[in-house]
Amino acid sequence: MKYKVLFLFVLLIQLAFGQTNTPETKSVYFEIAGSGGLGSINLEKAFCRKKFTDFTWRAGLSLAPIDNNNGTGIVFPLMINSIIGKNAHKLEIGAGQGITVTTKGSFFALTTAAVGYRYQPQSKNWFYRITYTPLISYIVDFQIQHWAGFSIGYKFNTKPHE
Q1: What is the distance of C-alpha 137 from the center of its chain?
Q2: Which domains does the chain carry?
Q3: If the chain, 162 residues long, is cut into consecutive pieces of 10 residues, what is the mean pLDDT of each piece?
Q4: Would you give the DSSP letter of residue 7?
Q5: Coil, strand, or helix at residue 36?
């Protein structure tokens, strides 16, 4: 399991810094619920663009109460997404790892997934997301926690059309 987390981290670093001719679209968004827990702040960066699909990586930060034995968790959702669509209405699909370190020294890792709708007009910098984001536990036994999220975000390095 540690190797999966390490692999994902190395892949994200490579995708973030290893590309030379990638789009420069960066976004920041606040997600209520979703893959970061009760709420998270996220940075998203496009690393590849194909016809009607943008591929992005995302890194987030969240705090979540766990229980009396573990305290509060600091959650780092790391994901790779594809955003599919040629107009304002887009399909978003993603997968990643949610890494949690608690205030009492525990460590958790959950696989995260996302399937959802993204409203992102070309003429605006603001966008909205609503996603189904199951959390998948596989360390002790296999469990799926059904979860969903809503996000409001802002795209940088884009100029609205007038």
Answers
A1: 17
A2: 2-16+28-155 (2.40.160.20)
A3: 55 52 79 90 93 93 86 92 94 94 88 95 94 87 91 80 40
A4: H
A5: helix
